[in-house]
Amino acid sequence: MVTGETRESALARIGRALADPTRCRILTALLDGPAYPGRLAGELGLSRSNVSNHLSCLRGCGLVVAGYEGRQVRYEIADAHLARALSELVQVVLAVEPREECDPA
């Protein structure tokens, strides 16, 4: 049985993962389907070690899963519900107009 605490914990994990722009870019790239760290690094203009570190974090949060194919590791979004939710969130983000930071002064 899923409890409120479990749901809150899952939302907190998602929030921590999405708090980093690089992890957001990786998750967005994985919306197109499974990928290898090297390909993601090339597509995103990042180092492979940087991508691997972020994938490790996303895996630890339970947002992505790894599948081993020989010596290569293929990553994909862990759950179809999460993929749909991220797809919806991306739509919202794309509709937001960039603006200057708030100035508290």
Automatic annotation (TrEMBL):
One of its GO terms (biological process) is response to lead ion. The keyword DNA-binding applies. One of its GO terms (molecular function) is DNA-binding transcription factor activity. It comes from the Bacteria. PROSITE patterns: HTH_ARSR_2. Keywords: DNA-binding. It holds the Pfam family HTH_5. Residues 3-97 form the HTH arsR-type domain. SMART domains: HTH_ARSR. This is DNA-binding transcriptional regulator, ArsR family. It comes from Amycolatopsis pretoriensis. The lineage of its organism: Bacteria, Bacillati, Actinomycetota, Actinomycetes, Pseudonocardiales.
